[in-house]
Amino acid sequence: MDLSVIKQRLVSGDAQGTAEGAREALAEKVSAETVLREALMTGMDEVGGLFARNEYFVPELLLSARAMYAALDVLRPLLAGSDYEPAGKVVMGTVQGDLHDIGKKLVSMMLEGSGFEVVDVGTNVAPERFVEAVKESGAKLVGLSALLTTTLPAMEATVRAIRQAELAGEVRVMVGGAPVTDSFAQQIEADGYAPDASSAVALARRLAGVRSP
Amino acid sequence: MQRQPNFDNLRRTMLRQGPPGPVPFFEVLADTGMVEAVLEEKFPVNLHRYIEEPVLEVSADELPGLLKSLAMYVRFCCEMGYDYVFMVTGFALSRSLKPAADTAVVQNWSDGQRYWQDEASGPIQSWANFEAYPWPKVEDLRPAALEYVSAIVPEGMKIAAFLFGGIFEHSTWLMGLQSFSYALRDQPDLVEAICQRVGELTIAACAQAAAIDKVGIISLGDDLGFHSGTLVSPDVIRRYIFPRYKKIADITRQAGKLLAYHSCGNMYKLMDELIDDIGIDAKQSFEDKIMPVVEVYRRWGDRVAILGGVDMDVLGRGTEEEVRARTRQILEVCGVKGTGYCLGTGCMAANYIPRQNYLAMLDEGRRWNREHFGGA
After folding, report:
1. pLDDT by residue (tens digit) across B324-368?
2. Which of B101, B230, B313 sits opposite A179 (nearest CB)?
3. Do the Cβ atoms of B46 and B108 come closer than 8 Å?
4. Contacts of residue A52 in chain B, CB cutoff 8 Å?
5. Looking at residue A84, what is its pLDDT?
């Protein structure tokens, strides 16, 4: 099974075909990690590029992510027993008072497609809960999302709570969402701002010191 | 002396006609929290129920409070200097909403909650759900609020009927945007059926509103975009949404009314089609982060009226001085011709804008009009 075929099936949003391709590759003794890196992650990278160029939109991203998850379900048992290490761990959430979910979800999917392990703490998340999630998971990266201007103060409060908490090692914070800007991110001393899902992946890689696939 | 409303000046402005005149004000809506803060008076009823409940039975006990609430909106619009009253009309569809504590400066609803659309799912996921859904009937739609306000609106004022929830919005609300996205691939016929049914209701609501003499504007609100583009591809919008918009525009035009189109987000790839093919008279809702209103005005202002654009983040978190400065910057580009532009927020007079900032924006507009046109 040509890994580029699996990749193309993922890019076209073919969940069944991507999972079947993963099964065939494994049957041909291709390692799970190789399928993950050379088909799924490169595929999601291409999807991210298409999204950044406005050739793909929310449905295409979701369909490709669905294809990715279908293949990951096939690979996961083998990855668990291997030496495979994710690129990093990210706590993702929408800040307190804000129930906007899909933006955070798209970023989470893209991060998983890029090899990160995502701990999604959901929406309307209090600053303390973010801190707790970082402590529980050992994540070194946090992603905060907000949709409305009125919930931006909660983003600032969350960054402050993370900085003030006694966390093992430095935790980087990236922020995004409709009202968020680069200057706001700097004002609240976040480590970076991403205007959309694909640039969030690039930012996460930079903050985590991870190279592109 | 109280300003005399002048819908004729607003109409002239929205049609981009001369002679140059004062810059009117425009909003599609003001949140109940903002209206209460400005009037320093509480609505006697919780209006949330009247917006969200699909089949509303208004009891005799409730009616006086409801009518007083409509009168409060008329008073708000008069006192703030609008030449029309913005009024929600149309229909409500049961959908999946999630409440969370409202963090805004003033509350919209007495329960202190803000209601969020469930983006993952909704009441229609399958054909069985579609068939079982309690769809309103076209024959049951009645623009009662518009009819009442028609009778009390002052001389010189008209009504802008805001069709609450556009075709894309209602359709994605019914499924949840996530499910809708999958359905575009997995169940396209279901998507078409939902858009067709929603379109039918929206078109009927538009026709009813357009038939009312005192309605001067139909405001169609349908958020198509986010920061970097449309939520779904332009081709999907052209296939499922635009044919319905065309019918709304045709009805509005045939009735001699104006069509104001509100869409949040980056929908600019479709702007030319909205102007040339659909035939909107005005575009409202702009974000500095996506494209500042002065840039929109420069690109399209000779073909469509531009409404509002004082950024919501500036209004929400800025100082009064920053609001005034931004307002003036916009007027110095968009207001100089004295036509084709109306001053307003980048989205709506939301409850998370401090009252003093909203009032400062309007006050700066009045100053501008006094300086350039001798008054409002």
Report:
1. 999 999 999 999 999 999 999 999 999 999 999 999 999 999 999
2. B313
3. no
4. 228
5. 87
- Tell me which H or E stretch contains A142: strand A141-145
The CA distances from residue A8 to A46, A47, A66, A197, in Å, are 9, 10, 14, 20
Identify the CA nearest to A198 among candidates A59, A43, A7, A50: A50
Residue B56 has pLDDT above 80, yes or no: no
CATH number of the A88-208 domain: 3.40.50.280
Contact A192, A159 (CB under 8 A): no
Q: Do B316 and A153 touch (CB under 8 A)?
A: no
CATH number of the domain where residue B334 is located: 3.20.20.210
Q: Is the pLDDT of residue B55 over 70?
A: no
Is B191 a residue whose pLDDT tops 60?
A: yes
Q: Is residue B2 part of a domain?
A: no
Regions of chain A with pLDDT less than 50: none
pLDDT digits (tens, 9 = 90+) for B73-116: 999 999 999 999 999 998 889 899 998 889 888 988 888 888 88
Supply the pTM of this predicted model.
0.94
Ranges in chain A annotated CATH 1.10.1240.10: 3-80
Helix (H, G, I), strand (E, B) or coil at A181: coil
DSSP A96: T
Range of the domain at B337: 7-373
- A154 → closest Cβ in B103, B231, B233: B103
Which residue is listed with tokens 């005399």?
Answer: B4
CATH assignment of A3-80? Answer: 1.10.1240.10
Interchain CB contacts (distance < 8 Å): A and B: 87
pLDDT at position B243: 98
CA distance linking residue B59 with residue B79, whole number of Å: 30
Q: Do B233 and A57 touch (CB under 8 A)?
A: yes
Q: Which residues of A touch B312 (CB under 8 A)?
A: 149, 179
Q: Would the CB atoms of B352 and A150 count as touching at under 8 Å?
A: yes
Region of B340 (left: φ > 0; alpha: ψ -120 to 50; beta: rest) is left
Residue in B114, B185, B231 nearest the CB of A57: B231
Number of structural domains in chain B: 1
Q: Residue B1 domain-assigned? A: no
Q: What is the pLDDT of residue A168?
A: 66
The answer to whether residue B253 sits within a structural domain is yes
